[in-house]
Design a protein that fits this description.
With about 300 residues, the chain is of the alpha/beta class. The chain contains twelve helices and seven strands.
Length: about 300
C-alpha cells in the first residue's frame, strides 16, 4: 500500500527542526505522530509539517516548545504577532509607495509582472535608491507577512528568488571595485537568507569596495580561512529575523577570535537588532550604517 507523506529528512530540512528533536517530541508529547511505511520509516503528513513550521516560527520568537507542541492549532495561530506598520512622516515621500502592489503580485504568483514592476522601479530610482527604498523595505514587509502567517513559504521563496536574480544581474554589471577595502560577505551555518548580503554587496560595490561574495551558511573556520586567503579587510555577516538572536553574540565572539586583529568584523540584518555591543564587532542596524562604516574605514585608511 502506498503511504504518502514526508520522510524525516525532508521534515528536518523544511521545518528547521532536527531529527533528534522530532523524535524526542514524539516520545515526550505525542506530537508529531507519524505513520510508518512498509520499511518502518516515519512518514509525516502535510498537516503535521505545516504545524511544525508554525511551532518553529514561534520558537524563534521566544516561545517555549513544551507549551507550543501541546497547544491546539488555533492557539498557535493566535500567538503569531500582529504588528501594525508605523505611519510615514506627514508630507514625506514614503519608501513604502507601491510596495502593496508588489506584494500583491507575489500573492497572485505573477512572476513576470513582479519582475517588470521591479525593473521599472529600478529604472526610475537608480540602483542605490532602489536597494534602499524598494528592496530593503519590501524584504522587511515580506518577512512580517510570513511571520504573521499572511504569506506562504513558497510565495516568500518566489519573492526571494526573483529579487536575488535582479540584484545579481545588476551587481555583475558594476565596474570592478578598488583594491581596498576588500570585503567578504557571507553568513554563518543555518543562516540561509541571502538578500541582506546582496543588498549590502550592491551598496558597498557602488562605493568602490572590492566585494567577495561567498554565499550563505559558511562554517566559522572557513570564513576565517577565506579572510586570510583573500587578505580581506572586512568580513561582513548578515543575520535575518528568523535566526535565533540568542546565538548571535556567541557566534560573533567566536569568529572575532578566529579572524586576524586587523580584519574588521561587521554584522547586520534584522537578526542583530537586540544584540548588545561587542568588542571588535561593528553592528549595522541598517543599510545607511553599512555605508557609514565603509566611509569611516576609507577615511581611516586613506
Amino acid at each position: 500500500m502506498n503511504n504518502p507523506g514526508f520522510d524525516i529528512a525532508t521534515v528536518e530540512r523544511d521545518t528547521g527542526l532536527s531529527k533528534d528533536v522530532l523524535r524526542v517530541w514524539e516520545r515526550r508529547y505525542g506530537f508529531p505522530l507519524p505513520e510508518r511505511d512498509a520499511h518502518g520509516e516515519r512518514r509525516y503528513s502535510a498537516d503535521q509539517v505545516e504545524r511544525l513550521r508554525l511551532i518553529k516560527r514561534l520558537m524563534d520568537q521566544g516561545h517555549r516548545p513544551g507549551k507550543l507542541v501541546a497547544a491546539p492549532l488555533e492557539t498557535l495561530t493566535g500567538l503569531s504577532p500582529r504588528r501594525p506598520r508605523p505611519a510615514p512622516p506627514a508630507g514625506a515621500e514614503t519608501a513604502a509607495d507601491g510596495l502593496d502592489e508588489l506584494l500583491d503580485l507575489i500573492r497572485r504568483h505573477d512572476a513576470a509582472g513582479y519582475a517588470r514592476a521591479m525593473q521599472q522601479r529600478l529604472a526610475r530610482q537608480g540602483l542605490l535608491r532602489f536597494v534602499q527604498d524598494t528592496v530593503a523595505p519590501l524584504t522587511g514587509r515580506v518577512g512580517e507577512e510570513w511571520e504573521n502567517g499572511r504569506i506562504e513559504v513558497f510565495e516568500e521563496h518566489l519573492f526571494t528568488e526573483l529579487t536575488k536574480r535582479l540584484l545579481r544581474q545588476n551587481n555583475a554589471a558594476l565596474p570592478a571595485g578598488r583594491q581596498r577595502p576588500r570585503v567578504i560577505l557571507t553568513s554563518v551555518p543555518e543562516e540561509q537568507h541571502v538578500l541582506g548580503l546582496l543588498m549590502a554587496e550592491t551598496l558597498l560595490a557602488l562605493e568602490g569596495a572590492d566585494c567577495i561574495p561567498l554565499g550563505t551558511q559558511m562554517p566559522l573556520l572557513e570564513i576565517a580561512r577565506a579572510a586570510e586567503a583573500h587578505r580581506a579587510d572586512i568580513v561582513a555577516l548578515s543575520f535575518s529575523v528568523a535566526f535565533p538572536g540568542r546565538r548571535v553574540p556567541t557566534l560573533l565572539q567566536q569568529l572575532r577570535e578566529l579572524l586576524p586583529p586587523g580584519t574588521a568584523l561587521w554584522a547586520g540584518g534584522a537578526g542583530i537588532q537586540r544584540t548588545s555591543p561587542l568588542p571588535g564587532v561593528t553592528l549595522l542596524h541598517g543599510l545607511p550604517d553599512a555605508l557609514q562604516a565603509l566611509a569611516d574605514w576609507q577615511r581611516e585608511h586613506a
